[in-house]
Write a sequence for this structure.
């Protein structure tokens, strides 16, 4: 197990380096410049390129970036917060923390609601509740987040006045409600659908029939036997979901005026803010790699039959 | 189960009501606070590096230049809450101009101090102006003093040292500025946000963090006290400001957002008092409810025509003539815009202080020369404009100068408004001329890169004036100008612009500038299609005594609760 984790960490570092290199060349391949405005002159752009070292050959720029990255220097923003340290923008201004808080709460909500709803629907397959849940979850995965967020904002903040319009830095517990619902709704529905399908699959297995034949109560069959096995595909989905939910909150953060990191994932590309593109992409890649590692380890606890190496097998 | 759900819902409602109660109480009894939203997070609030209207607005609340914008008592719109401004002495107590109009000597006030108590010195202006033009800083507005202050252009081109800029401190309170040639709008640019004084010691000590609330040192009316990035900039009165006793709000909060639904929601719930961005289709409703007002804004929306791709002027003129501008502002843009009759925006003043565009002789710069050449058409009517457009277009086709099967690519950056405008124009060209257009909706960087590479057939542009003089528009069309994206060349126009630049303000200069504008829309010309003059819609009911310049800056330093 230990040697497996070490190998995975080494592979993760290599993957991050690869992501860095590919991102660097891709972002430089798209046309434009962070310094292009309606009024920018070629002379101004040249001076700005010189100021930030963008006139150096690409390979030198990449080498400088990688060296500085491993020294903890992520460079400075070229556009979105011109001159500010990218590390400070992401971590010092609490943007990552705010996005993490919102993302984890949404993730928790998705799991707490999604899995039981899926189980309940599977257990009561064919009932009216199952039908209703299927309608809701199908609508849930079809409604775009920005529509849901705007509807919630208009109904609960503007019309009813129950919840604050501006969620700000999420200092007020009420400020979480609409952003979390907006961000988690899709995932609740998706997890519920996924759980229902895999639960139905598990319920039809021989070992469940055996358990029933032994006279084990239905509740225990579901909780102890069926659920554990049906969680494998859900856990697999949770890996990328965790990274995505933390970093993909752009629409929700914009609609509810939350100063998180979501905006920087999207707008850095539009603004050609190269250091922010690099930092956010590498951060996202690291999160995905880390979550996949966590998921792999969690597999072992859910299903001890799963092995990590060919030797163990 | 039902009881638990009911209890949870009740608890939520109690929390919500409690929160609402606190908020209302605070608003009624607390000090006067302005909550405004004019834009999202600024790229920077460093006056020497910033170039956006919002960043300049924040600068002008924190810093004061040699001159400043002062309210003159004239209301700008029917709300009565927005007051026009004029440029008067700010940090300068007085100034003198040499006989050749090329040297300005400013005497600074004795009672001006930085927020840390240090006196404001002439050297602070010298440092700031030199920093602006210093090529190593690569400021967006580094070119701003080119052709105005002595050696500015040469310094930007790295041909001279920054110390050779035409500005020097004669003593602690006396500043001498030497110009390249007489500049009628020089005093106005002395109020410009990029030219406020800065503290060399603070910037050198704090580096790029010098604009953080804990580091910033200002000489203006308000000072930044808190900056939650992507959320809010909070300002409080600067106790060292010479007019602090007369300032209005105890706090000015500039909220940072660009989501129109979120912005109008915050306004409607009363969390924000003043907003400048909201869904366009809500404008009429908000106007009828007495929330929305529309202020004049010095800017022209126009389309570049690539003169390399549309070589015959008659085709270009035909395209300019057959755009139904009334329909455009009524149905496509819907924010009270004014149909353009020339390139120079409404609100730009001539030497008599009157509107340059309104004082254009005849029926407007676009039409004047054609009206003289084709007197049988009444170009004040859209129908006749279309008839003349058809005639000119047909002539070009018949002469073999234009292939009617050509499809022009119309570039615009992604935005619903730009798209609506492009579609309306395309429809007019198709209906009247049978001309085919391909709309190219591009993200910002691709669009601006396309401008510089001249890859477009047509491309949109919004030109907001930096200072109130017609030259800021007309020189765009000079040969070789960086913004002459359509590659238009007219030696007569170049000559007129150069002459006007060297002339003192007066009727002769006004005439020269009017002639220059007409030359752009004469035979051989029409390198662009002016569509409309900008306006600035905003929502506000609660705040009164807001200062405004037609350059788009709103000032809240002296704001009061609206009557």
């Amino acid at each position: 197990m230990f040697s497996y984790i070490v190998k995975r960490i080494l592979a993760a570092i290599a993957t991050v380096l690869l992501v860095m290199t590919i991102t660097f060349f891709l972002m430089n391949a798209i046309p434009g410049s962070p310094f292009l405005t309606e009024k920018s002159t070629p002379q101004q752009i040249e001076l700005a390129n010189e100021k930030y070292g963008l006139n150096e050959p690409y390979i030198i720029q990449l080498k400088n970036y990688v060296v500085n990255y491993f020294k903890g220097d992520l460079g400075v923003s070229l556009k979105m917060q011109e001159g500010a340290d990218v590390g400070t923008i992401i971590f010092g201004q609490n943007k990552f923390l705010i996005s993490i808080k919102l993302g984890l709460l949404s993730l928790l909500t998705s799991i707490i609601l999604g899995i039981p709803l899926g189980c309940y629907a599977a257990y009561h397959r064919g009932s009216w509740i199952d039908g209703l849940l299927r309608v809701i979850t199908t609508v849930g995965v079809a409604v775009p987040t920005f529509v849901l967020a705007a509807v919630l904002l208009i109904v609960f903040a503007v019309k009813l006045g129950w919840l604050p319009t501006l969620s700000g830095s999420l200092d007020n517990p009420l400020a979480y409600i609409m952003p979390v619902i907006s961000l988690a709704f899709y995932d609740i529905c998706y997890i519920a659908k996924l759980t229902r399908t895999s639960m139905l699959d598990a319920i039809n297995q021989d070992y469940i029939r055996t358990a029933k034949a032994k006279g084990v109560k239905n509740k225990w069959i579901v909780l102890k036997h069926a659920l554990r096995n049906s969680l494998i595909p859900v856990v697999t989905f949770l890996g990328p979901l965790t990274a995505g939910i933390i970093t993909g909150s752009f629409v929700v953060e914009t609609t509810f005026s939350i100063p998180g990191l979501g905006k920087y994932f999207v707008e850095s590309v539009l603004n050609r803010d190269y250091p922010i593109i690099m930092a956010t992409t590498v951060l996202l890649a690291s999160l995905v790699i880390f979550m996949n590692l966590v998921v792999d380890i969690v597999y072992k606890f859910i299903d001890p039959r799963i092995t990590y190496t060919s030797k163990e097998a | 189960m039902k009881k638990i759900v009911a209890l949870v819902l009740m608890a939520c409602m109690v929390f919500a009501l409690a929160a609402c109660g606190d908020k209302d109480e605070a608003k009624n009894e607390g000090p006067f606070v302005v909550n405004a939203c004019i834009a999202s997070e600024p790229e920077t609030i460093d006056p020497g590096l910033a170039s956006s209207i919002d960043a300049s607005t924040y600068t002008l609340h924190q810093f004061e230049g040699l001159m400043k914008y002062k309210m003159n008592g004239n209301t700008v719109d029917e709300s009565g809450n927005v007051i026009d401004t004029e440029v008067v002495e700010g940090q300068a107590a007085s100034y003198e101009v040499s006989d050749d109009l090329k040297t300005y000597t400013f005497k600074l006030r004795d009672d001006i101090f930085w927020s840390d108590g240090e006196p404001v010195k002439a050297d602070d202006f010298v440092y700031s102006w030199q920093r602006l033009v210093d090529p190593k800083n690569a400021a967006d507005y580094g070119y701003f003093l080119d052709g105005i202050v002595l050696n500015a252009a040469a310094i930007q081109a790295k041909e001279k040292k920054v110390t050779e800029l035409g500005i020097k401190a004669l003593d602690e309170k006396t500043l001498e500025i030497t110009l390249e040639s007489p500049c009628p709008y020089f005093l106005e640019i002395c109020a410009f946000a990029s030219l406020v004084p800065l503290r060399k010691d603070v910037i050198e000590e704090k580096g790029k963090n010098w604009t953080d609330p804990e580091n910033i040192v200002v000489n203006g009316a308000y000072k930044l006290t808190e900056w939650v990035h992507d959320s809010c900039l909070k300002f409080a009165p600067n106790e060292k400001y010479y007019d602090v006793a007369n300032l209005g709000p105890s706090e000015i909060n500039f909220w940072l957002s660009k989501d129109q639904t979120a912005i109008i929601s915050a306004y409607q719930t009363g969390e924000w008092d003043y907003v400048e961005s909201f869904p366009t289709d809500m404008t009429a409703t908000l106007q009828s409810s007495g929330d929305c007002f529309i202020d004049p804004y010095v800017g022209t929306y126009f389309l570049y025509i690539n003169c390399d791709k549309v070589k015959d002027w008659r085709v270009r003129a035909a395209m300019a003539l057959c755009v139904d501008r009334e329909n455009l502002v009524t149905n496509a843009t819907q924010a009270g815009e004014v149909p353009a009759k020339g390139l120079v925006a409404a609100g730009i003043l001539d030497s008599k202080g009157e509107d340059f565009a309104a004082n254009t002789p005849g029926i407007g710069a676009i039409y004047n020369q054609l009206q003289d050449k084709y007197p049988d058409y009444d170009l004040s009517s859209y129908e006749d404009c279309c008839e003349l457009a058809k005639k000119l277009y047909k002539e070009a086709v018949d002469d073999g100068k234009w292939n009617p099967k050509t499809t022009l690519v119309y570039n615009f950056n992604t935005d619903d408004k730009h798209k609506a405008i492009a579609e309306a124009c395309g429809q007019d060209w198709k209906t009247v001329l049978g001309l085919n257009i391909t709309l190219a909706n591009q993200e910002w960087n691709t669009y601006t890169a396309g401008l510089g590479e001249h890859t477009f057939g047509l491309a949109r542009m919004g030109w907001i004036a930096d200072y109130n003089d017609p030259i800021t528009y007309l020189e765009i069309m000079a040969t070789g100008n960086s913004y002459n994206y359509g590659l238009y060349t007219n030696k007569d126009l170049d000559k007129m612009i150069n002459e006007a630049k060297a002339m003192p303000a007066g009727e002769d200069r006004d005439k020269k500038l009017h002639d220059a504008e007409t030359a752009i829309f004469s035979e051989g010309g029409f390198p662009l299609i002016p569509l409309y003059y900008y306006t600035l819609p905003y929502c506000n009911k609660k705040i009164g005594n807001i200062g405004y310049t037609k350059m788009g800056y709103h000032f809240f330093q002296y704001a009061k609760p609206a009557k």
The mean pLDDT of chain A is 86.
